[in-house]
Amino acid sequence: MNFLELAQTRRSLRTYLDKPVEKEKLEYALECARLAPSWKNMQCWRFIVIDDVAGRQSIAESMEENNPGRKALMLAPIVIVLCAVIKESEVWEGKDNMMLDAGLAMEHLILAATEQGLGTCWQGLFNEEKVRAALNVPEDVRVVAMTPLGYAAEERRPRPRRTMSEMVFQGKWGAVK
User: Fold this and answer.
1) What UniProt keywords are attached to this protein's entry (predicted)?
2) What is the per-residue pLDDT across 86-119, written as a single tens digit (0 to 9) for each?
3) What CA–CA distances, in Å, run from 150 to 23, 32, 36?
4) Whole-number Å distance between alpha carbons of 168 and 106
């Protein structure tokens, strides 16, 4: 599949089959994430792979009970937690490159997982301190996001997207071609 087809295929999934993810597919997605670009090539991201029920439960408990992501973390056979080492990035002119770099790595992982026939769902609504404690993440490292990873148990339809004319300007803000 080409990149446009890949981008059109990716969905946020919240239900997963009780089916293990092949080691090769997991490693492929992590390798794609490892190759993401970063500010000054500092590569601040780190991934924690959780593949046991107790570990997934401890991470799920970092979310509010009514958060649909909580159930997704328990259903998927794997949860990947994205962390970023603060000193391995910089804030420049008020722009936090650490968050951008970590996000690029996670997007690489999510798209690579989609290419491998796996489902994901970017999770950001969690208590960072609870995750930090559960996973022994040091204080100088941020817990940025997480995603369940597994085979989809649901078919998700495409969500509406803005038109190109609403998002792309020619030469200056608001100028439409």
Assistant:
1) Oxidoreductase
2) 999 998 998 889 999 999 999 999 999 999 999 9
3) 12, 17, 22
4) 25
